[in-house]
């Protein structure tokens, strides 16, 4: 086992985080430790104030209309369940549109509701690079369509979907538009107003640099009138009533919050705002360019998704002849200390689209802002060495 550890699995969770994230969480644990909204004493009030700082920063980052419409969740899957299930009436006639590039966090909730007879769905195909044609979304719309959902950036191919165009189609048709920003929040500029997004779901632990167990759902003002709650419970507000409050964020935030996580997320979002998404994206593209140029001459190696750096982020699925994905990941870790993720990546239809589903998927490299160009070159050299070892082994 190599003593070096090079983390290239940032699409799963970012690592490391900015130093300020750890420090903020430690301060909360040592100095506050209280639950927001559950007391009038200083520690509880201060915890609530820090959480509201996070909502304001998220509102600024994504150009939301109101900070209180950023509802905290456990993760992106939790946020997407709130959005998708909340828009469907189990007693009505409903139709939903998603795509073949989507993550299981969209596919599975819709499939579960379909299995229960709550809806019918259309899964729009993508091309070989993982790109959806907005015209196909438009053609899939029916009178009973209740939502259009899409994964903004594929966690398999890194492909960026044209969400602004799809958002315009959805808004013109009066259909709520749900965006899974798991791989794009913090990577790419997202403007929920200009992109005409009704519900934006994202995790805190990826490129917003919060800890695991954090996320949010942005709910466009007015959508709360049709978005049913899927969880109810204590909120610390209007406790004399046995019905869930009808105001945000309390309507969708039952139970005590993950305050320590949200306070860490608050510092992660602040760091992104200070660095700027444009600068972070430019760095990501430089790393991607270095990776693409470096692997282009490695015999037997293929990568999937858009060619070059156009219309993608630094998420690369690769296959190397002579290795199954798990074997390649194991060799990269054992011999070089490079940490990647192999398999289907919770996106079976995406792997079907690129032709790797029956092959056990791919080995995924995913970059972050604490990865340097020298790290990418080291990974390229490792792949080249494994390719040469494969050739020698088969001679």
Secondary structure topology:
Blueprint: E1 6-7, H1 19-32, H2 42-62, E2 70-73, H3 76-87, E3 95-99, H4 104-115, E4 120-124, H5 134-140, E5 145-151, H6 163-173, E6 177-180, E7 199-203, E8 215-219, H7 259-275, H8 277-295, E9 301-303, E10 315-320, H9 325-336, E11 338-339, E12 341-343, H10 348-354, E13 362-366, H11 373-394
Parallel strand pairs: 1-11, 3-4, 3-5, 5-6, 6-7
Antiparallel strand pairs: 2-8, 7-8, 9-10, 10-13, 12-13
Distance from first to last alpha carbon: 27 Å
The strand line-up of the biggest sheet is 2-8-7-6-5-3-4
Largest sheet descriptor:
7 strands, mixed
Structural class: alpha/beta
> Which regions are unreliable across 5 or more consecutive residues at pLDDT < 50?
none
Average pLDDT over all residues: 96
Computed CA radius of gyration, to the nearest angstrom? 22 Å
Q: Kindly state the percentage of residues in helix.
A: 25-40%
Count of DSSP H/I helices: 11
**Overall body shape:** globular
Q: Let me know the number of strands.
A: 13
Strand content: 5-15%
Would you list the SSEs in sequence order as H and E?
EHHEHEHEHEHEEEHHEEHEEHEH
